[in-house]
Design brief:
Elements (H helix, E strand, L loop, with lengths): L5 E4 L8 H5 L7 E4 L12 E5 H10 L10 H9 L3 E6 L17 E4 L1 E3 L24 H9 L15 E3 L44 E6 L11 H12 L6 E4 L4 H9 L1 E5 L9 H8 L3 E5 L4 E3 L11 E3 L6 H10 L5 H14 L3 H12 L1
Parallel strand pairs: 1-2, 1-3, 3-4, 4-5, 5-7, 8-9, 8-10, 10-11, 11-13
Antiparallel strand pairs: 6-12
């Protein structure tokens, strides 16, 4: 299989490109750049531009007022025959970069809406769809809408360029030194030292915690943290006979030990739908309970409703009832854990599967 030379323009610490570091010979010719103007980008087969790089230079540092600063470079790359992909690192299934889609070959996201026609409508109808199910006041809705008004809808003739790439299930879940500096570090250096995490079976540990979620109520955020706030409030104020655990941040090892002791793990949406909690729960053998994911497409797709996870309503109105039902019949849900682990194992740190996925994108 012919080797591909891939350049990635990214801010350091972006773990989403970990699979490129794990690739076999086909993907080993890849380099990371922190400046889109570097002429070396013009000589390679594939160039990924990470949207976190764009975000850094616009919203975070105000070095540029909008996304147009990079368009000239995008034209140069495409004129040289470089396959040009914009990797949208946004956490949710919406897209804020349709103003650039005509200047690239593809926009690749971690997850997209199953109904892609929503991207053709006004951004308010495709950005964080779940927010509108929370029973917000008119004032709260107005504030939420204002967060999306600056974005563009996808042009009708460009929608075919929006593709699913890979999600955070493929980042490295091992304990590795200097992990926050990836992808500048090389994962391959540690492959013979640090073993991949072991998938824990549901009955391998004493599971004395009925459900766990580490988090705190965010008083200033009634919109995007609604699910987290409702879950934490319920756990904090529960007075029944179940053992629910929540609280502020703890060490990584303590957190994973708690998951291994948990029968279930409720994983609300964060800034987006797919969360690190999901994969950590699966690795630790805890039953994943999560707001319904049937509106998105992602890869690897561990989200099979009533097969790999127990769904919740987006407004979390059925949280207590769902927890009671699953905990009272917990052995009936062990196949869900097995199914999720089976799907995830087939993809996690599997270079060949990722290579095939990568080639589908760049061909």
């Amino acid at each position: 299989m012919e080797s591909l030379h891939t350049r990635i323009v990214s801010e350091k610490g972006c773990r989403i490109f970990t699979p490129l570091l794990n690739g076999e010979q086909t993907l080993r010719r890849r380099d990371f750049f922190s400046d889109h103007r570097d002429d070396k980008l013009l000589t390679k087969d594939v160039v990924f531009v990470d949207t976190r790089y764009i975000l850094h230079l616009t919203d975070l540092t105000n070095k540029h007022k909008d996304n147009t600063f990079i368009i000239e470079t995008l034209h140069k790359l495409r004129a040289k025959g470089v396959k040009l992909l914009l990797f949208d690192s946004s956490d949710d299934s919406g897209c804020r970069y349709f103003d650039l889609i005509e200047h690239v070959d593809l926009i690749v996201k971690k997850q997209i809406l199953s109904d892609k026609s929503l991207y053709l409508k006004q951004p308010i109808e495709s950005q964080k769809l779940f927010v509108w199910s929370y029973g917000l006041t008119e004032e709260q809705k107005k504030g939420a809408r204002s967060s999306f008004e600056q974005f563009k809808r996808c042009p009708d003739d460009q929608l075919h360029k929006l593709r699913v790439g890979w999600d955070i299930g493929l980042v490295d879940y091992r304990f590795l030194p200097l992990q926050r500096y990836y992808p500048i570090n090389t994962v391959r250096l540690f492959n013979n030292i640090y073993e991949a995490p072991s998938f824990v079976k549901p009955k391998e540990n004493l599971r004395d915690i009925d459900s766990s979620f580490r988090g705190q109520i965010k008083d200033g955020d009634k919109k995007f943290s609604y699910q987290i706030n409702k879950l934490v409030y319920f756990f904090q104020n529960y007075s029944g006979d179940k053992n629910y655990l929540t609280g502020s941040k703890v060490s990584k090892q303590t957190y994973l030990d708690e998951l291994k002791r948990s029968k279930t793990c409720v994983s609300p949406y964060g800034w987006g739908e797919v969360c690190y909690w999901d994969f950590e729960a699966i690795i630790c053998g805890s039953l994943l309970i999560k707001p319904d994911m049937s509106h998105i497409t992602t890869w690897p797709n561990i989200y099979k409703k009533d097969e790999t996870y127990v769904p919740l309503q987006w407004d979390m109105s059925d949280l207590e009832e769902t927890l009671n039902r699953t905990l009272e019949n917990i052995t009936d849900y062990e196949p869900y854990i097995h199914n999720a682990q089976t799907i995830y194992k087939k993809h996690y740190l599997n270079a060949n599967k990722f290579i095939n996925r990568f080639r589908e994108l760049v061909q």
